[in-house]
Amino acid sequence: MSALSLQTVIGTTTANPNGFSSHEPTKTFALCAGSAAILAEVDSDDNITQRFFRARPTATPINPVTSFYNQATPPTTPDSRARCTPVSKSGLTVGSYRASPGADGSDTWSSRERIKAVTSVDISPNGRFLAVGETGYNPRVLIFSTAKDSPLDTPLTAITDHSFGIRSLAFSSTSQYLATLGDVNDGFLFVWAVSLKNGTAKLHSANKCTSFVRDMCWMGQCLITVGVRHIKVWRLPEVTPSSPTKSRFNGDSHASSPGISPKALSGRNCVLGSLSENTFTCAASISDTETVICSDTGAVCLLDDSESSQKLNLVKYVDFSITSMAVDFEQGSIWLGGPDRKMEKLLINDLRQLVSSKPPSPVPNDREQPIQKGKRLPIIAMGFLTSHIVTVDASRAIHVCPTEALNGEEDKECAETSLPAHKDAVLGIGPLKSPNPHESDFFTWSCSGAVNFWSAHGRRQVSKQIELEQLSSNDDDVPNELKILRATEDTELFVSGDRYGVLRVISAKEWKCIHEVRAHGAEITDIAVHTDPTTLLVASSGRDRMVQLFRKAQDDLELIQTLDDHVGAVGQLLFMNEAERLLSCSADRTVIIRERVARESNGTPPFAFIMSKVITLKASPVSMTLAPDEPDMLILSTIDRHIQRFEVSTGKQIHSFRASDPETGDTVVMGSLAAAAEIPGQSPNLLLGVSTTDKSIRVYDLERGVLLNREFGHTEGVTGILLLETQLNSANAPVRSLVSTGLDGIVMIWDLNVQQQEAWQGNSREEDETPVKELTAAKPPLRRILSKGELAGLQKFDSPTASPTPVREQSPPAIPRRPSRHSLAPPSHRTGHKSATPPPSASYSRRSPTSSVPLEINRRSPSPPSPRGKTMNVHHRSVHDLRRSSMDLRARTKSSEFGSLNMSTEQVCRTLRAYRKKLHGSSEHLRAARELQRELDLTLRALSERTKREDSNEDSDTDSSGKENDRKSSHTVTPRRAHSPRITARRVPSTPSLRHSRSRELSRAQSLETDGEG
């Protein structure tokens, strides 16, 4: 069994303040990362440890909550519209893939198995709960326990009342209420009563909210929502017990909340005045009656609700657009964040004094519009942790900065405590061999040309940038992107390809482009690099159906050959056997294998690649890789959801299986294949890949084609995976980790563990002299399909008589044989009597003699007895019986040899001869050599014992047969007339005479059977 456990996440998908939350007493903060929520903790040494909370779509919460508005929906199912699925009379859901405990709804692929992104998080003020909100159709609100020993994949409660995405989450100051706001399309605001004992949630109140809300916070017992020209105060009603008949649907709502129905959540908008055109971006409560609200125009407002008046006061303006805010209650201050990583600190008492003093002058018109954004990306979320401030900017980088180093300015001193990441989609990953100049284990690149070098633990060592050329800025032009990047084995050069088909060679030390060339007329899809002591080969493929082969000459790339064998876009390239072979797969459903040829010319050995084999597939290939232990084995994944293995030297398919899930039976398209070698006694040969169907990472047993594990993490397309192996010491097995990149800008590092199985301990057991007896029930069933020749031979013995009728064997029906004229004429020249049988009709004369015999016999009248004719007929019949019995014996012997011991012996001999030739010409490691030697020893032992038994039996048979022959020769006194047929049978005439005599014998045999004297 394989296990993928998430160890490190680089980057975040937090896009607004709703996706970030901090808890000052425990120095923890929460972020969104794909389909998981990160709970990070900062220790005293400024080290950051992460925990990842995520739940599968089929995860069952510890405390099930029945939906109030959709009673038929089970709490374990995110599909709140399950009532539209037809249900059969037996209670089973029609069309469901598999049953889950307690689930009555549909288990369709779209609603059950599709992972959803996390868009909002919030930590309760008591630090015990973490609320996670999903996006998409029928999302969930998951409440996890933050205890150290709590499960990370099982929530305490799952709320499924929203229909379209969760916009924001907010715990009240007492942690007893949780507000959940749906997306604009959802339009609902729910307040849930949360039990502090076990985290159970019950619906307290609800109302519609269709405004574009940017942030939400609690102010005492009031809820504040701010957004686009929107500030609203929602007040909790006093809930009193009422009849359960007041629920919207007459179901079993009282089962989950007996006697309590949700009340309407009353809300009232604030008077904005001169701020009516502002977009309010963030809000933070500073007391039970005061809240600071900021806008994108730099306005800082104070909402006062001391007398339930909800008065909004404009305090001041700052010189930048405010995008985020954090409150420091210990020092009584607030921190404002904006573009270009600008930060400003304001004292809360100063804000109160400004409100109580004379109101400010009228606001200028130019401040009513959003301030022009800076060149750098803004701070989108921030939180205060006692002595540190955590910020998340739009580049997805996380900075943990001491407050002493800021002093109200940019956090330039915080580079050593930052967690950088890619600010846009990550398009690929590549390995690096150690040692290398950057002391890194792998590198990643993004579409903007950013290249980051990482350690195996997820720490960024260095970041570089590849400059991309952009065409004239027209609306129809597609911006250029970095599509592929490869490094040489010595990590001295990097080769990149972009969307415009430009190939660049970059020096790793100076990180500058030393050569560039337009290699393709369209996007470059793949680059293969091979380095040897004499030359550097670079092969590139593109969507223009071309494969270009370059050789490095000093600092330039020299074009060696252009290969235009494909008729579709070329997807991937591979060098094999020290660049002796070049493989390319294309969308035209072919894999072309090319061989390298060279010749001497003027001291320079030019070379080229010529096509040797073409593997034609039933569907277009998606990805390909080489087997780790078998360099001649190619592994392919195709778009028809198959994974196939081919032997490159012969082009033959060795194995094929469907990439399916045994639990659901669903099949997926696999991409970004990577193979892992076998670890004796621990792990079989593994095949790792990415499912483009459900964005999961899958681990398969390569030999058996069985899915070992699959995990979800990315919410967008997974662009690549890389297998890292770290050898801690020579005694232990290597430690494996898997790195995945996605279009969501996230880099995830997984720990790959394969539990030890008894099935893989077979090679390590002691070799017994006596083989272990295999269970009969475990053996394959016996099969013996008789061929047409065997069945035709068995048709001769259908007659119940003791002796077979001497009739010639029937000819195949496809080649009818014309009967001889001699067989139709009466044999008067031998017997002197004419046959009384009339000549056959024309219809039966077309048939073969065999098919016409039964009908001929039934039509004839009996012939008169003749002593001479009878004697001659007996003579001919005896000769025919002897000749026919010998032919039948040969036919039966030949047909019975199929599957016999002699035929098996010949097959084993041929197989051993072929195996010896292959054994002498190969140097690969034999994993089953000891088992083969044991089987050969046992076979030789059994063969020698059989030979001894046969020799002893032959000696005894020789003695007995000699005495018997002497006894028979002494008593042989038999009349000559009785043995005349036997003597005549040994004198077989020539072939022409045999044909004529056989036809006459056949006619006489027919007359004998009719007379009843045979």
Automatic annotation (TrEMBL):
SMART domains, sorted: WD40
A Pfam family assignment: WD40
Record region (Disordered): 64-85, 240-260, 760-895, 943-1014
Record protein name field: WD repeat protein
Start-end of Low complexity biased regions: 842-852
Residue ranges, compositional bias (Basic and acidic residues): 879-895, 960-969
Organism in which the protein naturally occurs: Byssochlamys spectabilis (strain No. 5 / NBRC 109023)
InterPro entries hit by this protein: Quinoprotein_ADH-like_sf, WD40/YVTN_repeat-like_dom_sf, WD40_repeat_dom_sf, WD40_rpt, WDR62
Comp. bias regions, Polar residues: 64-74, 240-259, 1005-1014
